[in-house]
User: What shape does this take?
Amino acid sequence: MKSHRHEITIETKTRRAFVNITSEVEKVLRASGIREGLCLVNPMHISASVFINDDERGLHADFERWLEELAPHAPTEQWRHNDTGEDNADAHIKRQIMGREVVVAVTEGKLDFGTWEQIFYGEFDGRRQKRVLIKIIGE
Amino acid sequence: MKSHRHEITIETKTRRAFVNITSEVEKVLRASGIREGLCLVNPMHISASVFINDDERGLHADFERWLEELAPHAPTEQWRHNDTGEDNADAHIKRQIMGREVVVAVTEGKLDFGTWEQIFYGEFDGRRQKRVLIKIIGE
Amino acid sequence: MKSHRHEITIETKTRRAFVNITSEVEKVLRASGIREGLCLVNPMHISASVFINDDERGLHADFERWLEELAPHAPTEQWRHNDTGEDNADAHIKRQIMGREVVVAVTEGKLDFGTWEQIFYGEFDGRRQKRVLIKIIGE
Assistant: This one.
């Protein structure tokens, strides 16, 4: 069994953002030399998500509005986590809705995806450097 | 390390549906000959989920009503994704709530499940052929 | 390829609770002798979650209040699942929001975590013995 590990760094200019990281994951997969296996992708932070969905600007606007209604950033005093001096309770909650990680099948050296599957980093408390872990195991 | 890949095809008659695919996954696992490892099951589409929960009709009715309140299909104009000519923005969002994939332990050649765990395909934009990927790695 | 399986048992005194199980998972990982691979952690029940987030009391209070608003326990008659004689429909739904399982990278014999990542068992229908499965594969 082979394993391969790589970190990528992401810094968004806005508090919230969705970044397509599919081509970066594909690059890491090619470097790994692994042909059959599983590929895990997760943020190393608890106010961000990695998820698979559509690379369509309108959908991302829908996610943004919908998440903000479900777990609003403001007023920040509504969340007990923010009593600690933080202002990112909503980011921890948004991350739970969108999920932490994805596990993707690796087949014949490629991410085994349907036509529209793309991997996104979902940032909910950005404007600073964050790390995304890619771990691939297989042969 | 061994790996095994199989696709199953699902076409629901209704826009939304929950389909128990546990026995199909078990069949694929037996065919793989893998005794110890991990089994990934995911839709190859971005308007559907694979999840583990109870095979109980009342609960599925609760999921349906609750998801429809959280991310309603209509009016379709409420979602920017639908400006592209689609009408399935709600399906992309419902899929995020219910999750994309499951990873199940394989132990002694079986899905390592508690008493009530069953694997479901959750369709949110059906009435056409969809594919579910099963990828098993182990020994 | 090596594989290692372990169950831990959890019984909460309250219906709902969040229990940090990181050190127990680390103990199982050390016992496995696996240095590089993947570690799956999931409840063997369908009214509980395993998830990764912050070990901060205020945030857990936020999760509790927010989940209760999204999928309230009472009145229990609002859920069709409870027509079966159960009263835990809300627990099945809360588990979907928070997710079933986590998959964690194992690197150099350790859980490959960022600074704040901690693994929690999220109980939504407690006061009885529940099992959590840890399955590690790798080398």
